[in-house]
Amino acid sequence: MRNLAKKTQESTVSIQNMIANLQSGSERAATSMQETLGKAQTGASNVVRAGELLEEIAEGIASISDRNIQVASAAEEQSLVAEEIHRNVNDINSLVIQVSAGAEQTAVTSRELARLAEQQQGLVGRFRVS
């Protein structure tokens, strides 16, 4: 009987140790699961925030793209205006050359008229009315 009691006691201690180990393992598993859950929630929050930031970045890129299009359009308009100004300057230059030639011709004609007027005055001076 003593042998049986001793084996029973040893088995009881062994079972108690197993139960203690199982309880300890269960507690560690529960703690680990809680930590993992916390990390998963933090990770999910980070993913949501990253998505929000990516959306903000996409909006910023779209805004920059729109502004680039506006700048390109304005540059093209300025180029067209510059070409028109260049044509107008060339036209003005041509007109200035024409006006200058006309003024020179007018000066030549004026000198000729002055010479003719002087000549006529000399001729008129020969005729005296008595």
UniProtKB/TrEMBL annotation:
One GO CC term on file: plasma membrane
Keyword rRNA-binding attached: no
Domain Methyl-accepting transducer: 1-93
Alphabetically ordered keywords of this record: Cell membrane, Membrane, Methylation, Transducer, Transmembrane, Transmembrane helix
Highest taxon, organism lineage: Bacteria
GO biological process, one term: signal transduction
Subcellular location: Cell membrane
Record-annotated membrane-spanning stretches: none
InterPro entries: MCPsignal_dom
Name assigned to this protein: Methyl-accepting transducer domain-containing protein
Organism: Pseudomonas syringae pv. primulae
Origin organism lineage: Bacteria, Pseudomonadati, Pseudomonadota, Gammaproteobacteria, Pseudomonadales
